[in-house]
Amino acid sequence: xxxxxxxxxxxxxxxxxxxxxxxxxxxxxxxxxxxxxxxxxxxxxxxxxxxxxxxxxxxxxxxxxxxxxxxxxxxxxxxxxxxxxxxxxxxxxxxxxxxxxxxxxxxxxxxxxxxxxxxxxxxxxxxxxxxxxxxxxxxxxxxxxxxxxxxxxxxxxxxxxxxxxxxxxxxxxxxxxxxxxxxxxxxxxxxxxxxxxxxxxxxxxxxxxxxxxxxxxxxxxxxxxxxxxxxxxxxxxxxxxxxxxxxxxxxxxxxxxxxxxxxxxxxxxxxxxxxxxxxxxxxxxxxxxxxxxxxxxxxxxxxxxxxxxxxxxxxxxxxxxxxxxxxxxxxxxxxxxxxxxxxxxxxxxxxxxxxxxxxxxxxxxxxxxxxxxxxxxxxxxxxxxxxxxxxxxxxxxxxxxxxxxxxxxxxxxxxxxxxxxxxxxxxxxxxxxxxxxxxxxxxxxxxxxxxxxxxxxxxxxxxxxxxxxxxxxxxxxxxxxxxxxxxxxxxxxxxxxxxxxxxxxxxxxxxxxxxxxxxxxxxxxxxxxxxxxxxxxxxxxxxxxxxxxxxxxxxxxxxxxxxxxxxxxxxxxxxxxxxxxxxxxxxxxxxxxxxxxxxxxxxxxxxxxxxxxxxxxxxxxxxxxxxxxxxxxxxxxxxxxxxxxxxxxxxxxxxxxxxxxxxxxxxxxxxxxxxxxxxxxxxxxxxxxxxxxxxxxxxxxxxxxxxxxxxxxxxxxxxxxxxxxxxxxxxxxxxxxx
Length: 738
What we know:
Layout: E1 10-13, E2 32-40, E3 46-54, E4 60-67, E5 76-83, E6 91-92, H1 102-105, E7 107-113, E8 119-124, E9 138-143, E10 149-152, E11 164-167, E12 173-176, E13 180-184, E14 191-196, E15 205-208, E16 211-215, E17 219-224, E18 229-235, E19 252-255, E20 261-265, E21 268-272, E22 280-284, E23 296-302, E24 306-313, E25 316-329, E26 334-340, H2 345-357, E27 361-367, H3 378-390, E28 397-399, H4 405-410, H5 418-424, H6 430-433, E29 446-457, H7 459-464, H8 468-477, E30 484-486, H9 491-499, H10 503-507, H11 511-529, H12 546-551, E31 555-562, H13 568-578, E32 582-585, E33 591-600, H14 607-617, H15 620-623, E34 631-632, H16 635-641, E35 653-662, E36 668-676, H17 680-692, E37 695-696, H18 701-715, H19 721-737
Helix pairs in contact: 2-14, 8-11, 9-18, 11-19, 18-19
């Protein structure tokens, strides 16, 4: 069975001849002309795009696996296609050279054309009889235009296997091995140079003749393949965080037919010349699918008059072209401002979808706070946006997570969205979308997604954990049976999770509640600090991966926020494997957290457009994109997320998790868990459980910060319990009085 690299896409994009931007003539005439997005086609039954190129005539060649219907043993055939019209139509070519011999023996993992029309391959012989401890045999080979096959005396570099590669005119190769980009001698395979990625994986690169260019996080780097040295850099328009997903790139680079260089990322398509420090934006990513998180770029090909991009979007391959249209305004005439405290991928997805459906509107996404940038704090950003709103200014749409929503509603700065909710109610999960309904019946915000705190542990631990105190009692009574008490190990995260269980009393400054809460937190923290075995385990509170640590008793109780339905599956599988274990909502309280809560500025001049944006954000198209940090409130998207993938090739298999963790005795334990889809009745029961959760809890970012700052000395042993309670309540009262 051939391995399908999830997320490989061919996106057709159009290369601009002039930059976007500029203002119209005096009197209001808009500047005209910009690149617009067009959907092109790919051959039917597309299984995986392996290579794409434009030849010297500007026509396209595509190498792809085409799925066979009803044949599980041989899932796809490698086929060659040609397009003379920029990907609008494709004609099948002679593919007999791809059958038999090496092509059957080796599974083709990646391929590319060189400038002479030779087609190069890299693959593995998965059918080889390999002695224990040795790797699977691999091979580079080349097929000439006349069909002659040549095996190449090259070996894959040390480390991860090649993800992609390209060939220079001198025969040398640039090979992308996930985390390192290697320059290999084409005759000997010797490593001439290598470029390591500090974080994430290798980004895009290209070769023209013997000149190469590759994408660093903050620049385009030019490289001489003959001299094996860098020849120059051009600063990129933005810093790109390299992806840790081995099936996608966040920035791709390519040479254009006229010899200039372009790169594409979420911000758009940019062009520069070799040896020139000037960078020109030719396509605005905010006006195209490039800016949507679900748009996973795979192949980028500039043509004379357009750009092409192959992408993987919503579990399907797609081809997109970016073509210059002189009759379209350079920028749409109407602006919609969307604001959130921190960047939210689901908001990005909604903006991209809305922009596509409403080309007359330009959506600007503004961030209030970026962690780690200067001394500007969350509280500073909160005061700034509050001042703007009260003054009748500010953005049109706001993401209200972590903000004092009730206070904003009382001041009249948020529109009542009851009518919007009523119009969409039959498409939304009943409790979740109305989570922000106030006692007076108004609805100042509607969440796009939600998560739920869940607990996973042995049956005995689950039965004993009726509330916070009884859970801690069980942990203390069984202290010798695990290393970490909880899968979440940072005290600030631990406090945040358990704040959900008594939020109203804590936020009201109830002294008894704070005394009880902090005393239980201290018991947990003392166990965490008193662990016998030092290890590198540490986990944010998203539920899922902690199940692996629980399976080897590295943690006593696995818990966290269930942010996606399939995050249940690992915990279910290790419980099945162990013959013990349950997953339950935290203390059975019906708790959930509304997330990405959208509100509309009551004084916005664009309320009609803002309401349209809200409807788009709540649509199945946006909510089913799989880019959110929570579960969708759209009923159809939520239902789809609970279903098993029906691809026959999966055969009931969901995923495989592997790592090495340290158990309670200090031994390093390799873990390899094959995770199947839980039975349908189990998934259905959990879907109903999540839909029935009826107690929304909204956390206030400023109050959580007060909690963290004013208890730090207490957890460090520098202050007693009474002093910590007094400090927290004192700061809380000041905040509430503002």
